[in-house]
């Protein structure tokens, strides 16, 4: 009996396989191009783009395989991290240094949180105690975002004011134990804020996605203060009591591929309990009989559910999914914030490319056809620029006399002084009305 597969059959089958493979490649290419446009991805070369496409295809296969599982409580998606290997992702988006943490019996440790009836569900976003989702970028400073989120929450609860606080100040200035973009711990951040006497706002000390030199002028802006912090025992019931009173910082393992590509649903793992990432619990709830925590992340709104995740609560593990029960803490605050110091004066703008320091006045040093070609700075605020383009006078002595290096209140006082000088040649040296002109500086 002859073989069922003749050479012609084999050729047709091979052609069909090649056509199917080519069609799949084209579909993946189209999907990748659409994804690049959606997330604003631009690569430096075609070689890099090809490399990222290959990573994208592997992540696509992983997402599709997971989403086919019938018993999964969550789904994955091709979010903005879909062109990163899991190793690359872990190297840039985490930053919790839990192994170097303060002892849990720290002097700042408080007692068990005292609460009344525990509600069935709670969302601190509904109470206005949560700022919009932030993005740490490629800086491993998740600890600072978790810490500011918790301080923003308790400040709103105590004072009624929601103020976005500065992660960058913590990254730049909190160097006793924390290490900026190379990792840190929330307890150390709280300890630093207490020692510093407060923390500045996000608007005044904005985020830079990198380590910078500490701006010591900003350290005096103690806009929000805290009294201390409390470490929550590694117990889910105690953690629930804490979340009832305020948003709580927690450490988790956020480095697994499923966490990287999480989209929606109740995340239930599997994941390690080696803590490497910090987030903020902002509430809890239940869905179809399954309990969950509401986590605010610091990876922007393109990850998860607009930057949030629901994580399984009351699961089989005592340490919680991804170790969420192991390293919880929150800042304490009982009183009002100190008066906000005024913003330092801004530089004086002379032209599009020239400016003088705050408290100085711009004076034109050279003109051409009515256009100022160069500017000089008068070391006085609101000063009058003299016609000689070399001097300036205070605004309350606006009359210039460049020849005698004097400024006068008005023309009458100038005339009177001239008459006086006719009778006494030394009067100009002894008069109390004399005021030397200020010299313009380059």
From TrEMBL:
<protein>
    <submittedName>
        <fullName>Uncharacterized protein</fullName>
    </submittedName>
</protein>
<dbReference type="GO" id="GO:0006508">
    <property type="term" value="P:proteolysis"/>
</dbReference>
<feature type="signal peptide">
    <location>
        <begin position="1"/>
        <end position="24"/>
    </location>
</feature>
<dbReference type="InterPro" id="IPR000668">
    <property type="entry name" value="Peptidase_C1A_C"/>
</dbReference>
<keyword id="KW-0732">Signal</keyword>
<dbReference type="InterPro" id="IPR000169">
    <property type="entry name" value="Pept_cys_AS"/>
</dbReference>
<dbReference type="InterPro" id="IPR013128">
    <property type="entry name" value="Peptidase_C1A"/>
</dbReference>
<keyword id="KW-0645">Protease</keyword>
<dbReference type="InterPro" id="IPR037277">
    <property type="entry name" value="Granulin_sf"/>
</dbReference>
<feature type="domain" description="Cathepsin propeptide inhibitor">
    <location>
        <begin position="32"/>
        <end position="89"/>
    </location>
</feature>
<dbReference type="Pfam" id="PF00396">
    <property type="entry name" value="Granulin"/>
</dbReference>
<feature type="domain" description="Peptidase C1A papain C-terminal">
    <location>
        <begin position="118"/>
        <end position="332"/>
    </location>
</feature>
<dbReference type="Pfam" id="PF00112">
    <property type="entry name" value="Peptidase_C1"/>
</dbReference>
<dbReference type="GO" id="GO:0008234">
    <property type="term" value="F:cysteine-type peptidase activity"/>
</dbReference>
<dbReference type="InterPro" id="IPR025661">
    <property type="entry name" value="Pept_asp_AS"/>
</dbReference>
<keyword id="KW-0378">Hydrolase</keyword>
<comment type="similarity">
    <text>Belongs to the peptidase C1 family.</text>
</comment>
<keyword id="KW-0325">Glycoprotein</keyword>
<keyword id="KW-0788">Thiol protease</keyword>
<dbReference type="InterPro" id="IPR038765">
    <property type="entry name" value="Papain-like_cys_pep_sf"/>
</dbReference>
<dbReference type="InterPro" id="IPR013201">
    <property type="entry name" value="Prot_inhib_I29"/>
</dbReference>
<dbReference type="InterPro" id="IPR039417">
    <property type="entry name" value="Peptidase_C1A_papain-like"/>
</dbReference>
<dbReference type="Pfam" id="PF08246">
    <property type="entry name" value="Inhibitor_I29"/>
</dbReference>
<dbReference type="InterPro" id="IPR000118">
    <property type="entry name" value="Granulin"/>
</dbReference>
<keyword id="KW-1015">Disulfide bond</keyword>
<dbReference type="InterPro" id="IPR025660">
    <property type="entry name" value="Pept_his_AS"/>
</dbReference>
<feature type="domain" description="Granulins">
    <location>
        <begin position="350"/>
        <end position="407"/>
    </location>
</feature>
